[in-house]
Fold these 2 entries.
Entry 1:
Amino acid sequence: MYSEIQKIKNFPDYYSALNLPFGSSRDLIKNYYYTLAKIFHPDNKQTGQREKFEEIHKAYQILSSDNREQYDKVYIKVYTLKKKLSKEKETVLLSQDRIQYTTSINRLAKRGLLKTGLRKKDRSKYTGEKHDIDLIIFKSEIGKRILVKVPLVVRLLCPSCFGSDIHCESCSGIGTYKGTRLLQISFEPEQIVNNRIYEFELNRLRPEKFIHFKKKKFRIKIELH
Ligand SMILES: [Zn+2]
């Protein structure tokens, strides 16, 4: 048990080194790395910090390489264990009304952008917004861990035939079902920054093996109220 705890303590959290949540996209990792590297580079006389720079650099090396997959697997194990061992930090589970879809009918109507027959896919073009949801967080919740469960459209592999039987009665031979699943994402207190957008690669966050999200990337914008 002692060595387990030691292992957890020594496990480097490359995501938090870059101030990002687990599952962040490659692009976001790159952006954060370059931004932070500029700030902490030892040549920067005002804000340079060699130790911090090396930590960021190491984090970027791993998370931008093929080793990321392996690292992510261990990460999940370590953090599951860590959660069990440590007393839970105070966590706020956001209710569904704190999730605002940028392409929702209400939202478009409010901005006078509603056109009948406008396909959902095209809506983002009209709003000019690149993120999928706004997450409404109240100032009173600052300092707490925020948990959110976002319903997303998924394709589920047919459990009867696993997509292999064109005469399957369960899925009518289609091989998959359309369904929804809750995508669970948690933000650490220091990640709650107004107007910050986090981008997630959904295939890294799959709750079950036989699920495919319709989207590849999902962007969440933090909005403090
Ligand atoms: Zn089937």
Entry 2:
Amino acid sequence: MIDTVYFEEEVLQHPTATRVRKALPKANWVPINRFQELFNIRNQNFRIQKKNPALILAKKFENFVLPVPSGFGMNSTKNFYFSHMYNCLYDCDYCFLQGLYSSANYVLFVNYEDFFEHISQTIEKNKNDSQMFFSGYDCDSLAFDKISGFSDQLLQFFEKYQNVEVELRTKSIVTNSLRKRPAIKNCIIAFSLSPTKIAKKLDNKAPSIKRRIKAMKQLADCGWLIGLRFDPLIYTNDWKVQYSELICEIMTQINVSSIHSVSYGLLRFPKRMYKKISNLHNTTGLFAFPLDNNNGVTSYGKEIESEMYHFIQQELQHYLPTNKIFHCTG
Ligand code: SF4
């Protein structure tokens, strides 16, 4: 699965690196100085590299915890994200990471302990506010977990901070490690979802929607709180039927009391990022659709957005109280 592991020499003895070494015994291990030397090289072709990405093990030194972009988040007053990894095993056509990075190689920051130290400082600094932390902003929170072992340590950490919430956002169905342990009430396992037909076309390499719903149900049955994330909403000829069926299917399978929150957001990109991504995908249907440019943001435009926004909100309200439904604009 991963042929080459580049590692910063100083991280080789770190327990996370030892774990990765055991998980990838056949890979070719190559020492490097700093990860940026490889990751930030200009003119790399994301699509070509995505066919066989290498893994880079690195140490992070700064920016462990950052405020989320405006419009992202739910009902907490302070929202933060952290990224123990850059890039993702999956390959969704609309993924913003391909516009953000020039490399498709995976970077795993091994020093989880420093993330936890900075998160605890953030919690202490904002102790008078309600706080939510998001994992999986620059990667998928669980897809790489068998190798990284990150979620287990993350949950051990957040178990001690019941007054703040943490979200693990994922399309992965690798949930064994979660099901083996007691559910933590301040942790939300949030699944990104699209209608089956759309996901089949766009969510390359990711588990099918049927399997994601099954994984959600198993977690909900074990007591975990579930988040539903319909982001980005994708416009097609029959989008109303497709989204309506998807929402109905989920709500008939998952007990509503297990649903922590639902959020939805429309397809949107900063203009320059959209240009970069669409150049990488010039043959696919998603990028053939004429989009609108408004104030540096490329999207479906006000009319379609407003129609989708109202329809999804109404569909969700058939099943859930409005205080569990959030429109994400960030
Ligand atoms: S699962 Fe998320 S992070 Fe991974 S490729 Fe898809 S959109 Fe990107």
